Amino acid sequence: MVNKIFSKDMAILIGFLILSLTQFVFPKETKIGTEVDVMGVRTNYLTGYGIVVGLSGTGDGTTSRFTLLSIANMLRKMGIFIDPNQVRTKNAAAVIVTANMPPFAKSGMRFDVTVASIGDAKDIGNGVLIRTPLFGPDGKVYAFAQGSVSTGGGFTVSNRGGKVQKNFSTTGVVINGGIVERDLPFNLENVNRLKLTLKHPDFSRAFTIQEAINRAVGKEVARALDSSTVELTIPKGEEPVSFLSKVLDIKIKTDTEPVVVIYERTGTVIMSGDIKIDTPVYVSHGNIYVAVVKRPVVSQPLPLSTGQTVATEQVQTKVVEESGRIFSIESPKLKDLVKALNELGVSPRDLIAIIQAIKNAGKLHAKIIVM
Question: What percent of the chain has pLDDT over 90?
C-alpha cells in the first residue's frame, strides 16, 4: 500500500516537472482572428431533462421519486395509464442532458450531447436516451437529443465483497445525438457594423488591431471603443462574410504576456515563456525557506593596465528545508526555482502555494490562471 502511494506521488511530481519546464514558443505575429471574437458569433448552451432506458438493473431505485413520475408521464403520453406508485424498475434513470450548439447552426445539423445522472443510478452506459427536448436560455426548444449512451469504457460493479469502479459510469456522451430543430436568430445578412471583442482585453492591443485593420483596408473602418471592443464598419459594396474573413486574416505583432496555469485538483503547473522573478524576494512556507537575492560583483583590471572596472550583479536563489539541504540557482528564473523545489521532493500543492505567494508579493510578472 505504501509503495502504491509513493509511486502515485512520484508520478504526479514527475508529470509536474515535465509540464512546468515546458516552454511554448509564441509567434511574433498572429492573426487578428486568434485574438478576437465576433460579438454575436458564439456557442449556445442547451439543457434538457430526459430518461435513459435499457439499463441492466443499474438505474434509479425507488428513492428517486422523480424518475418514477417521469416514467409514468412518458407512458401516459403513449396511451398507457399507470399509477406512479406502482412503477418498479431499475432499468431506467433520470438524466440532465447538456449540449453546446455551434454558431450559425441550421435545422438538421447534428452535434454531440452529454448525459449525466441526477438520481441514484449506478451505471448509465449502453442505455438509450429517449427523445429529449433541449431548451435555450430563452426557454424555446432549439434541438432534440436521442441515441445510445457511451461512458467511454467506464463501469461500476458492486456486491457484498466490495465495489470496483473505472472512470465515471454515471456520465456519458451520445455521439451525434443532438439534431437542430430551430435556426439561431443571428445572421450576417444586411449587417453594416460588427463588434470584435478581445479575448484578452488590453488598450494597447485594441489600438493595434484598429490601426492594422485601417492600414490594410485603406479606410477608417475600425475604431477601438475600449480595451475589449473594436467596432468594425463594413464598406459599401462589401459582403459581410468576405470582408470579415479578410479582416480576421490580418496579422498583427503582439507581445504575449507570460502565463502560469495552475490545476489545483491535479497539482499541475504549466508555464509559458521564460518567466523571471524580481529580487530580492523571501518566501517561508511550512518547513521550506526560499530566498532570491542580488549581490554586486566587481571585476577590476590589473595594475597599470588599460582595462576598465566592470560592475555586474550575481543573482542567487536558495531553497532551504529543515533537513539542511540547500540548492543554489544562478539565475532568477521561475523554472529553476521549480526544479530545485522538485529536487527537494516538495509536494505539487506546496509548489503552487509558493508560486502564488511570490505573485502576490509583486515579484512574479506573469498572469496566473487557477483552474
Answer: 26
Q: What element of type H or E holds 162?
A: strand 162-166
pLDDT at 160 over 70: no
pLDDT tens digits for range 164-189: 555 578 899 999 999 999 887 777 77
Q: Where are the alpha helices (DSSP H) in the chain?
A: 2-20, 65-77, 203-217, 240-248, 334-343, 348-360
Distance CA(237)–CA(214), nearest Å, equals 17
> Exposed, middle or buried: residue 224 (CB in 10 Å: 0-12, 13-18, 19+)?
buried
What confidence tens digit (pLDDT) does each residue in 359-371 have? 777 777 777 877 7
Q: For the chain, list the domains and their CATH numbers.
A: 2-24+258-370 (no CATH), 48-156+167-180 (no CATH), 188-253 (3.30.70)
* Contact indicator for 192, 234 with CB cutoff of 8 Å: yes
Query: What type of residue sits at position 340?
Result: A
Distance (Å) of CA 243 to CA 59, 146, 191, 342: 53, 39, 11, 51
Buried b (16+ CB within 10 A) or exposed e, 3-20: eeeeeeeeebbeebbeeb
Element (H, E) at 296: strand 288-299
Phi, psi dihedrals of residue 188, rounded to the nearest 5°: -100, 5
203-207: long-range contacts at Cβ-Cβ below 8 A with a sequence spacing of 24 or more? 203/227, 205/35, 205/254, 206/230
Round to whole Å and give the CA distance between 349 and 288: 13
